[in-house]
Design brief:
The protein is built from six helices and no strands. 72% of the residues lie in helices and 0% in strands. With 171 residues, it is mostly helical.
Length: 171
């Protein structure tokens, strides 16, 4: 991305960050507080996400103001520019990343065993983004094997860390 396009990217990013922070803050407020059990108000599970959401919101607002000052709100959108954007390889990777993440978060987690869901997500992510159709067959097989090994180790480590380190019951 060229330097002259950064205010526009900052403008769009700031809006996404602000919307995300509002969502995080709302969800953290909706989390249980355990006041009826006599728990200290600062021990509520929504405190840390709420604070992080607030901080992300402040950074988003700061980025928004800076992008406005630099003219980032003048996006110059058109149908041709949008079609050109959709055709870029980086856009395809972005959309594929979003799709894989949503499939993992909304389609797999909570429906199948968490370590298996995480293994499938990591393995598919690595294989999809590292696959080279011009590579010879032996290298492809080796690359897929390494991806499966990384996914196995990562999913086991993540599951163990959350279950035993953070004492989080996994879905």
């Amino acid at each position: 991305m060229q330097e002259k396009d950064m205010p526009k990217a900052d403008f769009i990013t700031s809006i996404i960050l602000i919307a995300f922070s509002i969502g995080v803050i709302i969800m953290s407020i909706q989390m249980p507080r355990f006041e009826h059990r006599g728990a200290h108000p600062l021990s509520a599970p929504g405190i840390v996400p709420g604070v992080l959401g607030f901080i992300i919101g402040l950074f988003g607002i700061s980025l928004f103001v800076r992008s406005l000052r630099q003219g980032g709100h003048r996006l110059g959108l058109s149908k041709d520019k949008f079609i050109n954007w959709l055709r870029k390889p980086a856009t395809l990777r972005l959309l594929l990343t979003i799709a894989l993440t949503l499939i993992y978060a909304w389609g797999l987690v909570g429906r199948i065993y968490f370590p298996l869901a995480t293994f499938l997500f990591i393995a598919s992510f690595i294989i999809i983004f590292e696959y080279d159709r011009h590579e010879e067959r032996n290298k492809k097989v080796k690359r897929i094997g390494i991806a499966l090994l990384i996914a196995l180790l990562a999913s086991a480590s993540i599951s163990a860390l959350f279950q035993y380190g953070f004492l989080v019951r996994l879905p």
